[in-house]
């Protein structure tokens, strides 16, 4: 069994050294990665994790928006829609919360960006990539060891997030 988390929360960045399978993301730009095109995925293997995470949080995500161009994001896990988010000029810094399956061997998280657009089309930049959402920090979180398993309709009980003592690992 592979240890997944050293603590109840593991934080990392969407950097160059990525142990998880991804597609649809641009190259790492020093502090973030953009989704490139209308779909991006990250697959997290869950089968052999010693402390299986209950959910993943993508912190400080931003979209390529202006006062007249908004972004709509749909999030799916293993093909099932779990959340949607609207990014606007006034609501452009959001945390994406994704529940992870309890019994599946992996979590394939899909991000569908319906109005991805290139900066050249939007603001006249030289950048012709079709961009959607900018990802920075990620947290995998587990249920607290003493948490009671919630009913099917309840929101999972999660131990409060504590900041790790060390610098987040780059992935």
The averaged pLDDT comes out at 78
Strand content: 35-45%
Q: Tell me the overall shape.
A: elongated
Number of strands: 12
Q: How many DSSP helices?
A: 1
Name the helicity range.
under 10%
Structural class: mainly beta
Biggest sheet: strands, sense, closure?
7 strands, mixed
The secondary-structure element order is EEEEEEEEEHEEE
Span from first to last CA? 21 Å
Radius of gyration: 17 Å
The parts where pLDDT drops under 50 for at least 5 residues are 1-11, 145-171
Task: Explain the layout of strands and helices.
Elements: E1 9-13, E2 21-23, E3 33-36, E4 39-45, E5 55-63, E6 71-77, E7 80-87, E8 94-99, E9 106-113, H1 119-123, E10 131-135, E11 137-141, E12 169-170
Explained architecture:
- The chain is elongated.
- The protein has one helix and twelve strands.
- With about 170 residues, it is an all-beta fold.
Short structural summary:
The chain has 171 residues and is mostly beta strands. It is built from one helix and twelve strands, in the order βββββββββαβββ.
Name its key features:
171 residues, 7-stranded mixed β-sheet, 1 helix, 3% helix, 40% strand, disordered C terminus
């Amino acid at each position: 069994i592979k240890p997944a988390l050293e603590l109840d929360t593991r934080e990392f960045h969407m950097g160059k050294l990525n142990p998880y399978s991804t597609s649809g993301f641009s190259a790492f730009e020093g502090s973030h990665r953009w989704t490139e095109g209308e779909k991006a995925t990250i697959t997290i293997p869950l089968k052999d994790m010693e402390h299986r995470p209950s959910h993943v949080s993508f912190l400080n995500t931003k979209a390529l928006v202006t006062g007249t161009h908004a972004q709509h994001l749909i999030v799916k896990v293993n093909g099932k829609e779990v959340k949607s988010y609207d990014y606007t000029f006034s609501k452009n810094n959001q945390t994406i919360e994704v529940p992870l399956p309890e019994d599946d061997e992996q979590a394939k998280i899909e991000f569908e960006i319906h109005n991805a657009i290139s900066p050249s089309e939007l603001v006249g930049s030289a950048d012709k990539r079709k961009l959607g959402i900018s990802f920075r920090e990620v947290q995998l979180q587990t249920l607290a060891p003493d948490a009671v398993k919630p009913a099917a309709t309840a929101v999972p009980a999660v131990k409060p997030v504590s900041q790790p003592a060390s610098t987040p690992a780059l992935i």
